[in-house]
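Workshop exercise sheet. Pairs work together: one partner reads the sequence aloud, the other fills in the structure field after running the prediction. Swap roles for the next sheet.
Pair: D.N. / O.F.
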Amino acid sequence: MPVISIVVPAYNSERTILETIASVRQQTFADFELIVINDGSTDRTLDLLKTIEDDRLKVFSYSNGGVSMARNRGICKSKGEFIAFLDADDLWADDKLELQLAALKEHPSAGLAYSWTYNISEEGKLLYPLEPTFNGAVYADLLLWNFLSNGSNPLIRKQAIESVGEFRPPSTTADWDYWLRIAANWDFVLVSKHHVFYRHLSNSMSTKIDMMKEEILTTLERAFESAPLKFQHLKQQSLANTYQYYAEVYLRNINTSDRPSEIDRVISNLWQGIFLFPVSVLSKYTQSMIAKTLLIKILSLENFNLLINLIKRLKNLQSSR
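Structure field:
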């Protein structure tokens, strides 16, 4: 029996699937099975998978059911003591499984090990890192924000997965919902290394962002419905964090064609977050968002981007001294 089962949901992933699978096959820990759930792909995904010669690879094809269904199908096929999920457009550092497995063995009370993430562009360019520091009983911290960031991050004990059951739709928030259900009963352990490279795809239309935000707000409502009374005071802060995060998302996706309405979305979400949790206005993050919003109202989009890039270069220059 393999020690680790890796579940990769794949839907029309011809552009990235081979690179993703290569990052798995390059792992320093090799005792795994690689389960790819072909989720009704209509492109060359299945043909490309057939070119891979590796006895650890198992491909199962189904009609399209979405990411949550694909992960659940992969869990049912898994035989390992530990399970990892990897989206078909993300990548792993080569010692990801080795170090996460060692962390779980060192901490028997932990049901899930996670690592730091580096966000990358569609072309694979490094964008920005996420480096949370939470260990142990993280349920309260996870109610405030999804510090795991993505579905390709954790390695999970099979017992922890069996204790919470299946992923639930909608797919855009299924990760956070699942980590919360595990955190309610299990400790988490952090591996302080950038192991996950989470790819941002160019499908971030405002209407899609609106839908994702509403799904997250619905997931949070459900999470707090089941949260113990002692955690209910965190709800306003959690909702505020979500609104302010989406203010940043809208800000990153502003374009010249629809600039006025997109700026309005930034302002609306930013102030909704401040209204829900007023003390957030004292944080550097919120103050930075306010400053950026004011600047983009005053400057053209081109001049705003020039200013931001200049600030980044100056910071990099200063840090290199």
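Discussion prompt: The longest helix spans residues 206-226. What would you look at next?
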